[in-house]
From TrEMBL, chain A:
Belongs to the binding-protein-dependent transport system permease family. It is found in: Cell membrane. The keyword S-adenosyl-L-methionine does not apply. Gene3D superfamilies: MetI-like. InterPro entries: MetI-like, MetI-like_sf. Coiled coil: none annotated. The chain crosses the membrane at residues 47-70, 116-137, 149-169, 181-202, 223-248, 284-307. Residues 1-41 are annotated as: Disordered. This is Carbohydrate ABC transporter permease. Its main location: membrane. It is a multi-pass membrane protein. The keyword Plastid does not apply.
TrEMBL record, chain B:
This is Sugar ABC transporter substrate-binding protein. It holds the Pfam family SBP_bac_1. Gene3D superfamilies: Periplasmic binding protein-like II (3.40.190.10). The lineage of its organism: Bacteria, Bacillati, Actinomycetota, Actinomycetes, Kitasatosporales. The keyword Signal applies. Keywords: Signal, Transport. The keyword Transport applies. Residues 1-24 form the signal peptide. Belongs to the bacterial solute-binding protein 1 family.
Length: 322, 446
């Protein structure tokens, strides 16, 4: 859940990115102004206050991660005996990882596969729909477009959690609760992804290019797939990252939709393990919960690092116009 | 984050309760199970015919019971769904009942929450199946809890939680302090311990509805009176005063650690000697073994401190039953399983795996009483627990909306732990909020 909120906050600069981009380009095009130059990207002005603030934020974000990594090396005994930010005498990372994958007949693997399924179909599908919708809204005119805009913006403002209970009752009537569809279908809707794609497509695809393609005799589908889609690639990666993070971290929707542990995603599974500590006679496995959490965030970190290049260019692309 | 989730869950719980109320009005009255008795032959025939039973229960020992049951009746398939407990379990159960879809055939329900489901007709009456004849098998507290003061039986007691005082012997020995036998001595010991080492607290308590109600129960307070839909809430009797007098001092002098139960901090405190005692149910040893492995040998069990010297009164803390939700299917098979697990052969295998029984036969068995607890340095702790079980007063009742009441405990009584509110005032505002909610739900509340 925290991932979802962090993705939302990191997303807001993206919306304002075009504006800042423009200021930077104006600064470059007017090199005569000395004062401007000092502030330019080449020689940034140092600010003690900003450095301290950034440092604090760095500590604030890194310490929990550090705690997680260090704690994952401890046994249940070690967790209770030692300080949170330093290693215990026993180094149990490998046995913890082994136990995480084998505990309860290896249910963790099943949860991992479920999560991949939900992310693959949910986030993948959401991205696909956002591309189609965003492109259509950006490049075609039709009556009621303003209405659609209002609905989309409104939908961005409604937190998914607020819709969870009504969605549950609806899915329950359709007999879809406690099936993977109950998690996948609501994940297909990503108003924010659609909005982002819309804005991106508006900026990234020159209308002239589309017109040229049409004049050359390409049909709408061909124009979309051959001309528009490649231009949208950075935006697609961005939206895919956001929807992936949102689906990967989704907790509340599966919580109310699913009862059968065999269909749990990792978030619910880890929560169930954590809950065992609050259960009479339950097996207390904080060490596995922690190791499992670490294993759960590794793919997300990897995805961010690998796709960073596209993602950053995605945020900036379309901001500078000739 | 945890707080927000909890609040969400709380909100959802309330929502589900409302939904539950709505279905009750919608009329699940046509459930015919109340009218005609089911003969033992019907149950046997169903067992022979076979089928599947879905069980929502987190009790870990049920795994063995389900396996044994299926071995005995090969045509029956027990589908044990066992990953959730507490709030989440009830949310799922209430959601399923209000949606009238996916309701389990058997559900584990704690004693404090039973009234809520029973009253909204969410549960089948088990008396027609012969459950009413099992009364003598169970200890008074749990049986009283499943019958809710009428001739209807809403579940079979699975376990019980007669209270005991767990104490860290190593800590008490180190500071040469005697183990308290009354709550006044307890307060004294708390002061001495905290003075000897400011890091040591006599116990943790950051506001826990379960603990408070159990201690009130032990002190002789009877804040809830329930007669059908007539409910009375009153925290001003003499028993409540005994409790608030002692506990107010513990809070004022900062002698109880502000740690919530069942958190990692809590497990840590139990392990490293900073929490010296724990008043809790007899089911706790299993959690000590798995959750506090590093303090093996340090802890012992003792009878609960008395509110008046020489008084033996005890109370229950926790404990749960297996019930048959009214909308569940395969009622005969479901009942057969519940009876097997909670009254038949299943009880012994559950006790063997560390569950604390609610049945007299198991509680009085020599093998049970003479079990040496390795974790407690070889102590025969079951003798203390069995004594406690025998001394539980059976006239306690929870509210028919206790789940809701517990969910607002921290917003009312909880204030006494963090601010200048007195415990008595906190209880008063808990009372007012409970009364208000009860009236809104259509109860006649005083």
């Amino acid at each position: 859940m925290s991932g979802t909120s962090s993705s939302a906050t990191s997303a807001s600069p993206s919306a304002s990115a075009p504006a800042t981009g423009r200021t930077a380009s104006t600064a470059k095009s007017v090199p005569r102004l000395r004062k401007r130059r000092e502030h330019s990207a080449g020689r940034p002005k140092r600010s003690v206050l900003l450095t301290v603030l950034t440092g604090l934020i760095l500590v604030y974000t890194v310490v929990p991660l550090l705690w997680l990594v260090i704690s994952a090396t401890k046994t249940q005994e070690g967790l209770a005996d030692s300080s949170g930010l330093w290693f215990a005498d026993d180094f149990a990372l490998w046995s913890n990882i082994h136990d995480t994958f084998t505990y309860h007949d290896g249910i963790f693997v099943r949860w991992l596969l479920n999560t991949l399924l939900y992310v693959g179909l949910g986030a993948g599908g959401a991205t696909f729909l956002a591309i189609l919708g965003g492109y259509a809204l950006a490049k075609f005119d039709f009556p009621g477009k303003r209405g659609v805009f209002a609905v989309v913006i409104g939908a961005v403002a409604v937190p998914g959690t607020a819709l969870a209970v009504p969605t549950f009752l609806m899915f329950s009537k359709m007999g879809l609760t406690d099936t993977p569809w109950a998690v996948i279908i609501p994940s297909l809707v990503s108003p924010f992804g659609l909005y982002l794609m819309w804005v991106f497509a508006t900026e990234a695809i020159p209308v002239e290019l589309l017109e040229a393609a049409r004049i050359d005799g390409a049909g709408e589908a061909r124009t979309f797939f051959k001309v528009a889609l490649p231009l949208l690639a950075p935006g697609i990666v961005t939206v895919l990252l956001f929807t992936t993070v949102a689906t990967w971290n989704n907790y509340f929707l599966p919580l109310i939709m699913l009862k059968d542990p065999d269909w749990y995603p990792l978030t619910l599974g880890l929560d169930a393990w954590n809950n065992q500590a609050q259960t009479i006679g339950g097996d207390v496995i904080f060490n596995l919960v922690i190791t499992g959490s670490l294993l759960t965030i590794v793919p997300l970190i990897a995805a961010f690092l690998l796709l960073q290049k596209y993602w950053q260019s995605g945020l900036a692309a379309g901001s500078v116009k000739e | 984050m945890r707080r927000t989730t909890n609040r969400l869950m709380r909100g959802l719980a309330v929502l589900s309760v409302l939904a539950l109320g709505a279905t009750a009005c919608g009329g699940s009255d046509d459930d015919g199970s109340g009218s005609k008795p089911v003969s033992a032959g019907d149950v046997q025939a169903a067992l022979k015919k076979g089928g599947s039973v879905t069980v929502w229960a987190w009790e870990p020992t049920l795994k063995t019971v389900a396996a044994d049951f299926q071995k005995k009746y090969p045509k029956v398939k027990i589908n044990l769904v066992a990953e959730r407990s507490g709030d989440k379990h009830y949310t799922a159960l209430s959601n399923a009942i209000s949606a009238e879809k996916g309701v389990p055939d058997v559900a584990q329900v704690e004693y404090f929450a039973l009234g809520q489901y029973a009253l909204t007709k969410g549960l089948s009456d088990l008396a027609p199946y012969g459950a009413d004849k099992l009364k003598s098998k169970y200890t008074a507290g749990p049986w009283n809890a499943v019958t809710q003061g009428s001739d209807k039986v809403y579940g079979l007691p699975m376990d019980s939680g007669p209270m005991a005082l767990y104490y860290n012997k190593k800590v008490f020995d180190k500071f040469k302090i005697a183990v308290p036998t009354t709550w006044d001595e307890y307060l004294d010991a708390a002061r001495k311990l905290h003075k000897a080492d400011p890091k040591v607290y006599i116990a943790n308590d950051a506001g826990d509805a379960g603990l408070t109600t159990s201690l009130l129960w032990q002190a002789g307070s009877r804040p809830y009176k329930v007669d059908g839909t007539n409910v009375k809430v009153d925290f001003s009797d003499a028993g409540a005063k005994k409790y608030t007098d002692v506990w107010q001092k513990l809070i004022d002098e900062k002698l109880v650690a502000p740690i919530n139960g069942w958190t990692d901090d809590w497990y840590k405190g139990l392990g490293d000697g900073t929490l010296a005692t724990l008043p809790s149910g007899a089911w706790m040893p299993a959690n000590f073994v798995t959750g506090v492995p590093n303090a093996a040998g340090d802890w012992r069990a003792a009878p609960m401190p008395a509110w008046t010297k020489g008084d033996k009164a005890s109370a229950e803390n926790g404990g749960s039953s297996l019930t048959l939700p009214a909308l569940g299917k395969n009622k005969e098979l479901a009942y057969a399983f519940v009876e097997y697990a909670n009254s038949g052969a299943g009880v012994q295998s559950r006790v063997k795996e560390g569950a604390f029984p609610a049945t007299n036969a198991e509680l009085q068995a020599d093998s049970f009483l003479n079990t040496e607890f390795k974790y407690f340095g070889g102590q025969k702790a079951n003798k203390i627990f069995a004594d406690s079980a025998a001394n539980v007063a059976d006239d306690w009742s929870y509210l028919p909306f206790q789940q809701y009441a517990n969910s607002i405990f921290n917003d009312t009584v909880g204030k006494a732990y963090v601010g200048n509110t007195k415990l008595t005032d906190g209880l008063k505002s808990w009372q007012d909020a409970s009364v208000k909610y009860g009236k809104e739900q259509g109860f006649t509340v005083e």
